[in-house]
Specification:
Two copies of one chain form a homodimer.
Chain A (H helix, E strand, L loop, with lengths): L3 H17 L5 H5 L8 H13 L3 E2 L8 E2 L1 H11 L7 H12 L5 H16 L2 E5 L8 E8 L4 E8 L4 E7 L6 H15 L4 H15 L4 H22 E4 L13 H12 L1 H8 L6 E5 L11 E10 L2 E11 L4 H20 L4
Antiparallel strand pairs in A: 1-2, 3-7, 3-10, 4-5, 5-6, 8-9, 9-10
The structure holds a DNA duplex.
Chain lengths: 341, 341
DNA sequence: CGTTAGCACTCGATAGCGTTGAGTGCTAAT
DNA sequence: ATTAGCACTCAACGCTATCGAGTGCTAACG
């Protein structure tokens, strides 16, 4: 569909534009040592590329900038994966080598590494609920009528809720109910917890109907709110250094979006595995129509655990980011692998 | 030091400026129904007020704006406490009435209420560590050689760390050490935990020297990292709607500051009890030299528990914010009172 | 003597205008 | 097919004039 020369020119324009953030003219391309055509020739090709929809002109008599379609072609066919050099690889790994024995820590760290190395905003989703199961369920009394309910998953994740007992129930009764739950529910995946609760444990706890309802409520609440704890972000303000965000209004809509955890989750959920690139308007959310989102899933033994992603302007260093996401997702998989043995 | 009329004029200027964000001229003051002097008279008074340092002129032939000193005088002598009307009081309370049985929830909610009702940025610090004590310390085994250590405080706060056992230690040995710790340390305030550990429990655990060191490390880590969990913020992007932040660079320095939890903690710590107002350069941090920070401590039985605060531009609705902080800090004290019975 | 009307003055903001220069598209020559 | 040449376009920039909100000062007034 495109000639070799057109591809080459498109490639050069995008590379240059990514660096300079300014429209690229024919002369500056022609001057490059790896280009041996005159500006006029380049101009002709650029005109063709524009007609084909790969380039745009902000206004007549300005250079060209890539269109969404142009970026798309670039990502699909042209981009050279940023050669994360051995030194950088080591750097990434060295971030992890310290005693990182908590999953939350690893994930948060991953987000930090990403944003630091790219200067974009990073978003990391922790492991999906369906791969985690209940390990332990416990009640710690605080006072006469209050207690903390603690849920531990097999991944080492801990959730907790403070509850106050109904007046007509003693701590002992409550504790008994918990014991029964523990006996029945340990090992059950969190997603099946609810149905399991109703079907199997229901009758057994019949006589503790009240407590049962209450505990169920706590479990539900916990499972719902877990979403908050699964999204980690870093470098949100990095966006502000990009020239495309010199307008405060844009910044606000973007930052507001990033604070909406549910929306973020929704964006990240149900992404196909592997590395995905969403360019500009390919994103469903209007607030990031001038951004690109690159995501990679990390998985253990074929099971997708979670997602790491980078949000930046459409004019983004795709090669570098994709390369980085690739090795980082693999490193994370290895690192997290031990939790799932 | 100031005549009644000067006070009145200063008051009017600040009130108007807070609303309009634009320099106030003599004519617009004179036109107000509650002012019966000609512009010329007002001008004379304004010139005097400027000489005294209460007003500033952005440039000749512009109106006057309040100086830091002006705001200070306003806050100390002139401001009418925003009459949080009964309806709003109810609104605040209604936010809380739902089943809020977790302390974190209450605090986070308080931050949200503040930012929603003021359109500024709110910062809330949870209860100080020294008022909380250890309630329970537990180990939940995950696999052969990993476990989750869980610490519960008397406030219902839960902290946890995943740990991996040294190879030469069994889970049973570890568990035993935990039992001893539990017996000795429950009820001890968190701040004294460390010294208590060394002095009293040290010998007892002598034979478990290795484990002891390890557990100590975990406790330390937990106590240190607790800071992160104690700072709650809401409405960080509200700043962006203020005209004084139309400049992206300012926004960035501000947002960067807000992300530094330790700095925030430092700013809030050791504040005198009651309501405090820090105007502009009265703040030590340069990044908020064009902001004002209003804080209120909330306390139970004379003991200060934590701090709630509002960060806004110096041109801030002091009356409203102070009034709101006042009733909210009291409401929180009541609500949190039950944890400290 | 405090207050006020009048007036010259200041200065940021805004609009209009010519200049500049990077970049284009087209044509004709190679 | 490529390229040199040239007329054309248009944002950006700087300059100037104008406008008007607001001031400071002086003199008049009750």
């Amino acid at each position: 569909m495109l000639t070799d020369r057109q591809r080459m020119i498109l490639n050069v324009i995008i590379d240059d534009y990514i660096r300079s953030a300014e429209p690229i003219g024919s002369r500056s391309i022609s001057k490059r040592s790896d280009v041996s055509f005159s500006p006029a020739t380049i101009r002709n090709e650029m005109a063709d590329l524009e007609e084909l929809g790969f380039l745009e002109q902000p206004h007549t008599s300005a250079g060209r900038i890539p269109s969404i379609k142009g970026y798309r072609y670039y990502v699909d066919h042209l981009v050279k994966l940023g050669e994360v050099n051995e030194q950088e690889k080591q750097l990434v790994r060295s971030y992890f080598t310290e005693k990182m024995n908590q999953m939350e820590q690893i994930i948060q760290h991953a987000a930090m590494i990403l944003s630091n190395m790219t200067n974009y905003t990073s978003i990391v989703l922790g492991p999906e609920t369906f791969t985690t199961s209940l390990k332990h369920f416990q009640l710690v009394p605080l006072s006469q009528d209050t207690a903390v309910a603690i849920i531990v998953t097999n991944t080492g994740h801990v959730e907790n809720r403070t509850i106050s007992l109904p007046e007509d129930m003693t701590m002992e009764e409550m504790q008994q109910a918990v014991n029964i739950l523990n006996a029945k529910l340990v090992g059950v995946p969190l997603v099946r917890l609810k149905s399991k609760l109703h079907s199997e444990v229901g009758q057994e706890l019949g006589r503790y109907a009240d407590q049962f309802e209450r505990l169920l409520g706590i479990l539900d609440q916990t499972l719902e709110s877990e979403g908050d704890h699964r999204v980690f972000m870093s470098g949100t303000t990095n966006m502000l250094t990009q020239p495309e965000f010199k307008d405060v209004d844009k910044v606000k809509t973007l930052l507001d979006l990033l604070e909406e955890t549910p929306t973020i989750m929704q964006m990240f959920n149900a992404l196909p595995s592997g590395i995905q690139v969403r360019i500009g308007t390919e994103n469903t959310h209007e607030a990031i129509n001038t951004c690109s989102l690159i995501t990679a899933t990390y998985s253990v033994e074929g099971k997708s655990l979670g997602t790491i992603g980078i949000l930046g302007p459409t004019r983004m260093d795709y090669g570098k980011v994709i390369g980085l996401l690739d090795i980082l997702s693999k490193d994370m998989a290895v690192l997290l692998g031990r939790w799932y043995k």
